[in-house]
Amino acid sequence: MIHVCSERQLQKTEEAFARLGDGLMRDPEVTHRIMAAIKSKDTKPEISLRRALWRRGMRYRINEKELPGKPDIVFTRAKIVVFCDGDYWHGHNWALRGYASFEEELASYSPFWQEKIRKNVERDKVNNTKLTEMGWKVLRFWESEILSNVEFCADKIQSIYEERIALK
User: Fold this and answer.
1) Is residue 109 within 8 Å of 117, Cβ to Cβ?
2) Is the Cβ–Cβ distance between 36 and 28 less than 8 Å?
């Protein structure tokens, strides 16, 4: 991926990294710019999965604000919600990076990030419970799972969709 930035932005980034000294901490300004660039919707995994579902003739709503957790994909007729969870943000990165557990990976993070990711995981559990109590089927896919085999994920969704529609 190629990022285009102004000469001034490049200079500010270089200055920020130059101030790192021993390399133990990134300048907060650099962290801010990195975090501001991360999208919360229409991510590559979401778009990839939506395209695979669309090609199968499956129609859906996206980012339904009225539902807990604002699901990425919603099949209203079948009452299915789909979340495309980022590995880092939702606590799965440990499995990809070779750690023995979620807690082992979190130990390498600052207290701020430990708390942030734990809260995300807890909020996911609460939203799953709320949605289930409302009669929704909750499906969650890791971004790495979608990117490695989007058709498998789409197959799973389609199978559950067809089962739920048949019951109506």
Assistant:
1) yes
2) no
Cα(82)–Cα(50) distance, integer angstroms: 10
Q: What is the domain range of residue 27?
A: 1-37
Closest-CA residue to 153 (of 141, 136, 165)? 141
CATH code of the domain containing 131: 3.40.960.10
54 with 120, same domain?
yes
Buried b (16+ CB within 10 A) or exposed e, 28-50: eebeeeeeeeeeeeebebbebbb
| Model confidence pLDDT, tens digit, residues 138-150 | 999 999 999 999 9
Q: Which of 42, 65, 74, 84 is nearest to 161 (CA)?
A: 74
Confidence label for 163 from pLDDT (cuts 50, 70 and 90): very high
How many domains is the chain built from? Answer: 2
Same domain? For 32 and 44 the reply is no
